[in-house]
Each structure stands twice: as structure tokens, then as C-alpha cells.
Amino acid sequence: MAQSQSIQQLKIFFAKVKKPVDKYFWAYAFIFPSMLIIIAFKLIPLIVGLGISFTDWNLLSSPEFIGLQNYARLFIDPTAPIVFKNTFYYSLLSVPLNLVISLLLAVALNQKIKGLSFFRTAYYIPVVTASVAVSAIWVWLLSDFGMINQFLNAIGLNSVNFLQDTRYALTSITLVDVWKNLGFNVVIFLAALQDVPEDLRDAANVDGANARGVFRHVTLPLISPSIFFTAVMGVIGSLQAFDLVFNMSMKHEGGPARATSTIGFYIWQNAFKYSRMGYAAALSFALMGLLLVLTIIQWRMRRKWVYGEE
Asked: Under CATH, what is the fold of the domain 69-305?
């Protein structure tokens, strides 16, 4: 009798446990392929890269453990302040310009006008265009005999060495980056604008608000989560700038006179040109730490201006 009661209690217990076990099993089963990819191509390389940052390795000989020397070198490397300064300038110029221009374009494309689909597609094409192709086109446009300088000469102005003058080279590449990536933010802002309820806009109009007031007090707060997302992604992307810098800088050297060298470009140089893999890895983790700090700051500040955050 006692044995049968014990068996019955065990059946009840397993009946209660079975459902959550099945639920968690299938949940983990579905995310397992993605987790496997993240572990194989993100986590393991991250751990290996951290190990390399503590070594002196030129890819040909065996790595030699040198402790924190690569990180200490960051503070005495005369090139490091230059590339960090260039990268901050790149980010401070590209991110606000991209946000403002893409938001204005999204507002314009949100209107009921003819040919709307064409303009939406046209603004997004540069995003999916290969960076090499974009770079080649803009190098030609910005060259001494390119269309831009021809236009300047036609209106009586002197030619400008956009990519060979230290005063203009980095700004020129940054503006090309803004042009190339506008479409990504335009699509996000356009989706956010289309989700703004018309009832709220109508209510604001009834209360006497003009178009500017409706946009400022109704539309902007409601699309602020999208603005926050694009700002965070923009900062991360700009601080990792490499492809346009490599393809458009003088002789692919980050020139002239290091004027266009960014952190991403300097990491590539140390790793594959100077064969200093350990120092390149240390630079990479310094950049990762910088991105982490900036992202945390942005995440904390979101409570002050993102709608719905407390």
C-alpha cells in the first residue's frame, strides 16, 4: 500500500515537472543553432584575441607572452593619440549629420507624394552597395579633375585637394560615409513615423498646435526610441570605421600625414602590415572598452529623453 502511494506521488511529481521541462527544452533547442554560431564566431575568437593581446606575435614565429606591455604601449605610442583624435572627429561629425539628415528625409518621404517608392529605393541603394564601388566613385568625383572640382572651376573657384589636403581629407571621407549610410536610418525613421497614431496628431491640431509644435511635442517623443537606437548603432559603427578610410585614403596609407587614420585602420596596419598582432589585439580591446563605456553612458542618458523610459 505504501509502495503504491509512493509510486503515485512520483507520477504526480513528474507530471508537474514535465511541462516546464518540455517548455525549456524546446526553447533552448530553437536557440541552440544561433548560440552555436555566436560561440564559434564571437565568443571563442574574443577569448583567443584577448590571449593574443598579452603576447608578442608576428604570425611567423611562436607567440611570446609579454604580459601588459602591449597595453602599456598605448600610452607611449605617438600615433595612438592621432588615430583616436581622428576617430572621435569622424564619429562626432558623421553621427549627428546622419541622424538629422535621415530624419528630415524620412519626414519628407512620409508624405503622400508621387514617386515615393522610387525615392525610398534610391536612398537605400548606397547602403547595400559595396564600399569598394562607393569609394571608387567618390575618389573620382573628389579628384583634382573630378566633377566637383570642375563645378568649382566653372563658378570661378579654385580646385580643392579633397583627399590630399590634411585639412579636408578626413572630412571628405566622413561626408561620404554619411551619404552612404543615410538610407539605413531613413528606413528606421520612416517605420517609426508610420507608427505614430494619427489621433494624437489630430488632437494636437485641435488644441491649436501648428505643424512644428506637433512634430516637436508629439512626433519626436514617440519616435525617440528609434532615434536612440540609431544613435547607439551610429556611434558603434563610426568608431569602427575602416573600409572607406582604407579605400579613399592616399595610397591606402591613412594619409596624408596620418590625417585619415582611424583606430580601425591603425589596427589593420599593426596586424597585417607591421606584423604586430599582439599590439593590434590590444588596440582592439581598447576600442571595445571605449565602445562599452560610451554605450553605457548612452544607455543611462536615455532615461532623460527617450519616451516611455523612467
From this structure: MetI-like fold (1.10.3720)
